[in-house]
Potassium inwardly rectifying channel subfamily J member 11, like (Mastacembelus armatus), 434 residues
Amino acid sequence: MLARKGLLPDGFLLARLAENQNQPNRSRSRAQRARFITKTGSCNVAHKNIREQGRFLQDVFTTMVDLKWQHSLLIFTSAFLCSWMLFAMIWWLVAFAHGDLEPRDPNGEPGPVPCVTAIHSFTSAFLFSIEVQVTIGFGGRMVTEECPLAITVLIIQNILGLIINAVMLGCVFMKTAQANRRAETLIFSRNAVIAPRNGRPTFMFRVGDLRKSMIISATIQLQVIRRTVTSEGEVIPVCQLDIQVENPLRSNGIFLVSPLIISHTMERSSPLYELSAQSLASEDLEIIVILEGVVETTGITMQARTSYIPEEILWGRRFVSIITEEDGRYCVDYSKFGNTVPVRMSSLSAKELDQTRGVQEGTSDVQLQGWGLVRAGRGGFRRGGRACESSAPQPWYAQSEKSQPQVEQKGQKKTVKLEVIGRQVDDALGDMSD
């Protein structure tokens, strides 16, 4: 419209249209990109076309616990109402077969003893069924010794009522004591960051526990979920790759007494080794965080989950410190839990940084030649050898290496060859004896 009115040149408008067409639609890609794990920790997976629905009935208790509260309450209420109605019908049939429902003359002779007293209709039978199952016992209706069948029905209804109560109480207890309730007080930072740490690009996020009761044997597990294609052309839509968490003990165990920053170094063995600032926006990956542990107060194993997609990973930023020491104790300021500050960082990936530094793939350490123990005299050994010629810094043991002993003879320096363990004695030892 602006081009038609002459407010903008046609060339500028066509250039903008071509630029917008070449650039990917970020809003559309974000809307279509699905998460495997939501920020709250629930699995974003829909199960469809399940033909064997009967397998869920083989484990009724777990199925009841996994249901939502409204569905569980509806099932419990229906179970009680159905049992009351069923036994009300049975009590009414017992009374009808015994003749207790026939009208009697109040001024006449008393009739036979009824099976259940004070049952005159289906409504009174329904009330008696409720009194039997919930053991209320108002005292107006009761079973007599006249009908053994009524005593048998009374026993069966009591047993069935106890089973329904036990199942209901067990399901309610398990639903209220589920481990995911404890996970509500475990918080993760909204965003993850990538910042240099010890000279290497590092992926980091923060986790904290709001309760004073600790999580025993807490462990952190990281996984990268991405779409991959094998060498045979097979497309794997959800490929899970484990990520090693940085820990001096080489284990994923953590001591979650205060908020911690969990880090992962983007080295050669990392799935994020080729990730750069430019490719981060277009990467189709998701980093899943799984925290497992045992609740100290209940002893129940719990699990908290979250995930980070490329839009939630900040490049060139790090978390601010939130722990201070005040009055002889450590204080945590949770108002700064997710705050980050920018840092100076290259936009290149870890792989590109290694290539610019001259680190070739497949070689990470300095190769030593002839390094080992050599004989230094009777009853003792010392380290010796020769390092290959390289501009890389020598290891600590190379710096302490002493030069080989030399013997001056007639103004010339003669190098003495020492015997390497496992080899034959060189003829040069004979020359040294001369």
Q: What stands out?
A: The chain has eleven helices and 17 strands. The mean pLDDT is 76. Residues 55-177 form a domain with the Helix Hairpins fold (CATH 1.10.287.70).
